[in-house]
Amino acid sequence: MMVYTYSEARQKLAQLLDEVLEEGEVRIKRKDGQEFVVKPVSKKASPLDVPGIDLGISATEIIQFIQEGRRYSE
Question: Per-residue b/e over 13-50, b at no fewer than 16 CB within 10 Å?
């Protein structure tokens, strides 16, 4: 894991953030010896958030399919 000084971190922030994405975390060390860890924040996504599928049919066709299905189930 890479350790940056505070000054380096300020000067190379874009590079530091790229490295965080690749490595998972980076440390920043102050002159007084304190160390900090920079990590990416994990996104909280819904399990229902799934990509759509393009079937190449219109909304009108979908409605017709639903109506036909309802007729058969009566």
Answer: eeebeebbeeeeebebeeeeeeeeeeeeeeeeeeeeee
Enclosing H/E stretch for 26: strand 26-29
Report yes or no on whether pTM surpasses 0.85. no
How many domains is the chain built from? 1
User: Residue with structure tokens 């819904």?
Assistant: 46
CATH number (domain holding residue 8): 3.40.1620.10
Residues 6+ apart with CB under 8 A from 19: 2, 26
Low-confidence ranges of the chain (pLDDT < 50): none
